[in-house]
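Thread: sanity check for a docking pose with prephenic acid

Original post by kr_44:
Hi all, I'm comparing my docking run against an independent structure prediction. Below are the sequence and the ligand SMILES. Could someone generate the full complex and paste the structure tokens? I mainly care about where the ligand ends up relative to the chain.
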Amino acid sequence: LSLDTVRDFLTREEDTIVFSLIERAKYPLNPPAYDPATTYLGRRHNASFAEMFVRKSEAVQAKAGRYQSLQEIPFFPFRVPFTLAPPYNFTTELYPSAAFVNVNDAIWSMYFNQLLPFLANNGDDGNYAVTVSSDLVCLQTLSRRINYGRYVAEVKFIGDQQNYTTLIRNKDKDALMKLLTSEAQEDVVKRRVQKKAMMFGRNVTLDGPVGTDDSNSSQASFKVDPSLVYKLYDKWVIPLTKQVEVEYLLHRLD
Ligand SMILES: O=C(O)C(=O)C[C@]1(C(=O)O)C=C[C@@H](O)C=C1
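Reply from moderator J.T.:
Ran it for you. Here is the predicted complex with prephenic acid included:
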């Protein structure tokens, strides 16, 4: 692992995030899928249909071995005695006591309460299963990207052990935050995801050569508002990644 390779990983995840948002934006808001008071399976549950869908899907994916890789962290952890997938000897670069640091609870509430209302148009077309299935993909992608802050923090720690060790011993969160921050890099990331939203979210027609802007660049014709993607990174993705980095570092000498 090096700063270049972890940044390459984050860059590639941007594509997955933008595509997953484009998919979710295809469906209307579909409010009954998110209301814990909605009746389904003939009765009320304490969880929304979306939550139930995520729980059951994660159970299947856990059985299939998804969480054998530390890059993936479920929203609803549970033990699985065995997996169906062919065995693979996963090794990890992470420090064991810090390897399970994650901010999935914050991601969950940010996604449903702050992002989704701006991502989907108002309306209810009853396509609840495909809708929450696309929510699951968004959540998993955001979780993988943000919790990858553990790997970024490990690289930064190894690269500057002396300074980090002092700050970790003093439990100085603010100084850790300052040391791991690169504002120039954050600016690059935010402007790049906005551009990706403009490129990937374009309507493609057969007029003109490949790369021609068929959509006149007007905001309304993008499948996901590029400024919303910028804001997602600015307000949530990057700050939460940094929170993961700080929490990882605080456990790095345990
Ligand atoms: O690339 C880094 O150095 C990171 O720590 C990742 C990241 C990000 O979330 O994109 C977070 C903090 C830095 O200020 C810059 C970028």
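The pocket of prephenic acid is lined by residues 7, 10, 152, 180-182, 185-186, 189, 238, 241-242 (CB under 6 Å). Hope that helps with the comparison, let us know if your pose agrees.
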